[in-house]
Amino acid sequence: MTALLDVRGLSKHYLGLTAVDNLCYEVEAGAIVGLIGPNGSGKSTCIDCISGFQPADAGQWFLDGRDITGMPPHRIARAGLTRSFQTVRAYDEFTLIENLCVAAQETDGVGWMQALLRGKHLRSVDAAADGRGRDLLATVGLADYAEAPAAILSYGQRKLLAIAASMMAKPRLVVLDEPVAGVNPTMVKHIEAVIRKLNAEGVALLIVEHNVDFIMSLCSRVIVLEAGSKIADGHPGLIRSDPRVLSAYLGKSHAAEYGECGG
Amino acid sequence: MDLNFYAQLLLNGIVIGVIYALIAMGLSLIFGVLEIVNFAHGEFYMLGAMLAYFLTANWGFGYWPTIVIVTAVAAALGYVLYEALLGSLRGESFERSILLTLGLSMVLQNGAVFLFTTTPKMMATGLSYSNIIVGELRLALSRLFALGLGLAAFSALYLILYYTRVGKAMRGVAQNRDAALMVGIDPRAVSRLAVAIGIGLSGLAGAALAPVYAVHPLMGFSFVFKAFAIIIIGGLGNISGAAIAAVMLGILESLIGGFLPLVLVDALAFVSMIAVLLLRPQGLFGRGVRV
Amino acid sequence: MSADTKAGLRLNTGSQPKVGALRALSIALAVLALFAIPKLTGNEYWLALGVSFATMSVLAGGLNLVYGYTGLLSFAQVGFFGIGGYAAALLVIERDWSLWAGVAAGGGLATVVGLIIGYSSLRLSRHAFAIVSLSFALLCMIVARDWVELTRGAMGIPGLPAPSMNLPGGMRWRIVQPADFYYLLLGFALFAHALIYLVVTSRLGRAMRAIKQNEPLAQSHGLNPLAYKLLAIALSALLAGMVGGLFVFYLTIVDPSIFDFYYTETMLIMVIIGGPGSFWGVLASSAVLTALPDLLRFTTDLRMVLYGVVLIVAMLLFPGGLGGWLQRRRVARWRRPHPAAP
Asked: Which domains does chain A have, with CATH numbers?
């Protein structure tokens, strides 16, 4: 079975410091996979590289069999891999519904000339995007604010908006970068429910998080990084009791080899 | 080949290059410490020259006192400029600082045109028409004085930047602002001094060159863009890089002007800047600050 | 939901269509009034103001597109303006082209140049583009003044002939009187603003605004920032080049002063006061700033001093311009506690 996301040999160095070292992992279609590890283990770098926001020094990654290595971020997004950001980003001047519609416009097949000439086709496409956007706002619980400028949202609400927006381009895989960092426990539960609902529609998710409980309850598989390398990869129950994982989090680090990366 | 012709061109080039350097170093210092591009920098050069003219022509000051007064006034203006306008700007917005200082230059330049008209004025000092003859070279004394003043200013700046506490603090902020803040350097005090020095240098350059060229309200305009080009070529925030690039440009302009059409001379600075930006964005001497 | 501001339900905006129709009607009336002016008063003073408004509003509109909507500070507009002017003049005088072909070619040349400087510097950063655009404008002035073989130097190219146009119905319109140029330039301005309006109210304009607000976010949604930035630059260059071609024939001379920094400063003020990113705001400020200084009998120098002060004050107190202030008001309205909230 070919994985949806296949990362092989990803490596990235910063001025002599190795952020990610020969990293290999997969994400199956429709799965929710967690990516955890202590600070500085390379989680964010890995995400930035596969989504095109940072150039990698080595490695290849494939989305649904298609080689997306080295593509610029906008092309990767159009190919079906979208993401959210650690620093929660939104278009503050746009309303919530505008925030979502803009996220859909590059994947609905409408060209620039069509956009200017404003025919019937454009109107129906826009109406469809508007409908989907409002549905998503309802799913995440922000329907009341559809016409409000995004600037009024609280921190947690901005995270919900970002998650909704990442769904608008009809992605196969959504990468969430710390979706529950800094939010209160009620909101954490709410975001978990939202993620389950979105996953039920067939979208795979790769979630980078520090909140280990959140990951353990949500994900079917967990990958653990330490100092740029993978030290564990499997079912949450196994990970929880893996001695390497425990020592990584508790301080004593092992140079764990997780087997050759090359299959 | 007429060696004297070359030598004359070279000397002229060095003189103008040293003056470029005074202006460019001031601009570079302000950028390095405050991360602000001072579009109004050329107007302080012009104001320095204007003040020098008025002091000598209308109030009969001697040349040396004029130089001192103009430099002091310019430095004071720099202090005021910082407190009134620049202090509230932070480096996050490149565009805002450009537009703010552009507005200031519009006020100063057009204000000067309004008050003094665009008629150029010639500044007469005791040295105006004297030349020194060395071998077959004719060196205008006024140019030599400009050169001397420039070199003196360099040395003073070098001493300040490398041998005084506040100078080292300025270099520290220019290299790594956050680190400098962490070790307890007061950014406001350092910034204020940097602006005062930068503007002071500009005013000094104006006073130094006033006897050499005509003085008029639009003289600063062409200088500021060249100075801007120079600091890009030398490397943003690299003060000695700016000085070297400035002298190189002065010499090249002079040499080229001796043989090739005028358009190439005037265009040289800007074409070089574009070339450097596109091919080596950190500047010839680099700093790590990429545009 | 955690303790957030409950904004209450918005008023049903069913009145939208009526507002739209009213607005369209008032615009139509304003345009009619503008075109009627030469018939109402033969005073050449007003006609000259009209030409000035038409020209500057197109330049300001283009700058607004690049800076206000897309967030790219650019000094290149005046360069495109003058390139269009020189190209049109040279093609008509030396190659015997018609004015319309010359103007189109001037616009095309300006567009190509704009794409070149945009593409080469935007790969680096917005700041690199700002700097390159500035030196481009300065280089244009230098070349126009010094490269005498190409541009005839400081004296420029005087004696540009009056153009003429074949009207439907077989008549030939000779464009000689000030009133003729008034109609010509105003007509072009109408076309230019309509085109800009079409772009900024479409999803293309929305994309530009998204890129200005948060470029990485836009990228993560599949928007290609470089493509939209180049679109904005190309369109602003095309319109500036074409209006430049028409303008120099109104002046009947093209010389290096077409590249004067004065134009850059004026169009910047028009955009800043009107509000970067506000289509109607910039259009309105172009009109006001064209008419007002003449009405107040300001000399050019004082006018520029005033503009400088405006620029300083705007940068210190209103970095977002009128548009930013309006945005804050919108946000504030949503944040006001609703009386019905529990």
From this structure: 1-88+171-263 (3.40.50.300), 91-152 (no CATH)
pLDDT of residue B284: 77
Mean pLDDT computed over every residue of chain B: 83
Whether A256 and chain C come into contact, CB under 8 Å, resolves to no
Task: Say what the pLDDT of residue B123 is.
Answer: 66
Rounded Cα gap, residues A163 and A179, in angstroms: 8
Q: Could you give the strand order of the β-sheet that contains A229-234, starting from the edge strand earlier in sequence? A: A81-83, A173-177, A204-208, A32-36, A221-226, A229-234
Give the number of domains in chain C. Answer: 1
- Nearest CA among C309, C115, C145 for reference residue C226: C115
Chains sharing 3 or more CB pairs under 8 A with chain C: A, B
Q: Hey, which of A241-250, B15-24, B217-226, C287-296 has the most confident mean pLDDT?
A: B15-24
Mean pLDDT of A216-242: 89
CB atoms within 10 A of CB A186: 11
What the block records as the tokens of B214 is 């005509």
- Of residues B89 and C197, the one with the higher pLDDT is C197
What is the average per-residue pLDDT within A210-232?
Answer: 90
Ordered DSSP codes for chain A: ---SEEEEEEEEEETTEEEEEEEEEEE-TT-EEEEE-STTSSHHHHHHHHTTSS--SEEEEEETTEE-TT--HHHHHHHTEEE--SS----TTSBHHHHHHHHHGGGS---HHHHHHT-HHHHHHHHHHHHHHHHHHHHHT-GGGTTSBGGG--HHHHHHHHHHHHHTT--SEEEEESTTTT--HHHHHHHHHHHHHHHHTT-EEEEE-S-HHHHHHH-SEEEEEETTEEEEEE-HHHHHH-HHHHHHHHSPPP---------
What letter represents residue B57's amino acid? A
Q: Are the C-beta atoms of A122 and A110 separated by less than 8 Å?
A: yes
Q: With respect to residue C55, please indicate whether it lies within any of the assigned structural domains.
A: yes
Q: Do B267 and C265 touch (CB under 8 A)?
A: no
Which DSSP symbol is given to C64?
I
Residue C149 structure tokens: 């073989």
- The complex scores an ipTM of 0.91
pLDDT tops 50 at residue B70: yes
- Distance in angstroms (rounded) separating the CA atoms of residues A75 and A257: 34
Cβ-Cβ contacts under 8 Å, A72 against chain C: 219, 224
With tokens 């290096």, the residue in question is C256
Digit-coded pLDDT (tens) for C13-65:
344 566 678 878 888 888 888 888 777 777 788 888 899 999 999 999 999 99
Give yes or no for residue A255 having a pLDDT over 70: no
The token pair at B134 is: 């060395």
- The arrangement of strands across the sheet holding A17-27 comes to A17-27, A5-14, A58-63, A66-67
Does any CB of chain B come closer than 8 Å to the CB of residue C130?
Answer: yes
C143 lies in a domain? yes
Neighbours of A119 (CB within 10 A): 11
Residue contact A82–C327, C-beta within 8 A: no
Burial letters C38-55, b for 16+ CB under 10 A, else e: beeeeeeebbebbbbbbb
Q: Domain containing C143: what range? A: 40-155+163-258
Asked whether C140 and B263 are in contact (CB, 8 A), the reply is: no
Contact between C54 and C188 (Cβ < 8 Å): yes
Let me know if chains A and B touch, i.e. at least 3 Cβ pairs under 8 angstroms: no
Does C276 reside within a domain? no
Distance CA B111, CA C247 (A): 29
Give the number of beta-carbon pairs within 8 Å between B and C.
116
Check residue C79 and give its pLDDT: 97
Nearest to C53 by CA among C311, C288, C246: C288
Q: Check residue C7 and give its pLDDT.
A: 32
Comparing C107 with B289, which gets the higher pLDDT?
A: C107
Residue C115 belongs to a domain: yes
Q: Considering the entire predicted model, what is its pTM?
A: 0.88
